[in-house]
Amino acid sequence: MEGDTTLELRQLQYFVQVARLQHVTKAAEELHVAQSAVSRQIHRLEEELGIRLFMQRGRNVQLTPVGQLFLRRAEALLSDLDRAVMEIHEFLDPEVGEIRLGFPHSLGIHLVPQVVAAFRKLHPNVKFKFRQGMYPSLIRDVVDAEVDLAFISPYPEKSDQVTGEVVLTEELFAILPDTHRLALEDSIKLIDLKDETFVLFSSGYSLRPIVWDACKEAGFTPRIGFEGEESGTIRGLVAAGMGVSLLPEMAMYETSSMMPAVVKISEPHVTRTIGLIRRSGEKLPLVVQMFHAFLLDFFKNHYKTL
Fold first, then answer.
1. Strands (DSSP E) along the chain, which ranges?
2. pTM for the whole structure
3. What CATH architecture applies to the domain 89-164+275-301?
4. Cα–Cα distance between 241 and 257 in angstroms, integer?
């Protein structure tokens, strides 16, 4: 490949669309151009690069291995270009920008609606795009620039790809069936639950290892009877007498007809960190900078837990 290769924006846009749909005609329809125009631009792109990007597979096309590599780069370039155009508009008026925010389900019940509502009172024209996910997918979304900021728990202490700060440290409480022998206690030691059946989050959810490690620290391995994927499910199963569990303070905001008893744990002191992360080494768009500064002030001076 020659060193003075000149690529056109249109070629990259057509290439990405064909790669995503694996079909030239469908890509042309999506782009509202003639099929011949798409084929011509792809051919020119391959000539410029000196490589084959696609292989024919019946009526469809399939990326070659080097085409797959180029797709990741082309998507990143187009994403950066879109962000650059957005930043220009936001520079002219950050009050009408868009903020892409990621968060786990457990923070979507109360925390995220609370902070977004407070921010929009000050900046009513700013738009939000939300993305929920588990711990690994939230990290990936930030690294891949799918979101600008993400709330995450626990805060990742060591990462070269993301940076941020802990905005909140939250206590975990024991939740018990209201008929449990310890349900009326002001506080208990976690070892008091060593013979109980536990209702825990499924694997992949960050609260699971926090509870598991706390039990190990207390001197026992929890016996798991049931698993769930939402705090409401965990609470409901415990309230129904299916076992005991530990949940963060924030998970108690949501109420239902099936609510467990909530008891403080005196030993060990069980907490989780909630962090706000962004991509390392990247300057945030102005509207996101504005939201980021608002969040740091909000958690420092205004946010109240139960």
1. 54-57, 60-63, 98-103, 127-132, 149-152, 162-176, 187-189, 197-201, 223-228, 245-248, 261-267, 271-279
2. 0.68
3. 3-Layer(aba) Sandwich (3.40)
4. 14
Among the listed residues 59, 25, 58, the one whose alpha carbon sits nearest the alpha carbon of residue 42: 25
Q: Which residue reads 């002191």 in tokens?
A: 269
Q: Where in the chain is the domain with CATH 3.40.190.10?
A: 89-164+275-301, 169-272
CB-based contacts of 121, cutoff 8 Å, min separation 6: none
Strands 261-267 and 245-248: unpaired
Residue 264 CA to residue 3 CA, distance in Å, equals: 66
Q: What does the block give as tokens for 203?
A: 């694997």
* Tens-digit pLDDT string for the chain (306 aa): 444 566 788 999 999 999 999 999 999 999 999 999 999 999 999 998 999 999 999 889 999 999 999 999 999 899 888 878 877 766 667 777 889 999 998 888 889 999 999 999 999 999 999 999 988 899 999 998 899 999 999 898 888 899 999 999 999 999 999 999 999 999 999 999 999 999 999 888 889 999 999 999 999 999 999 998 888 899 999 999 999 999 998 887 776 778 899 999 999 999 999 999 999 988 888 899 999 999 999 998 877 554
What CATH architecture applies to the domain 169-272?
Answer: 3-Layer(aba) Sandwich (3.40)
End-to-end Cα distance, the chain: 63
Class of domain 9-81: mainly alpha
How many other CB atoms are there within 10 angstroms of residue 210's CB atom? 20
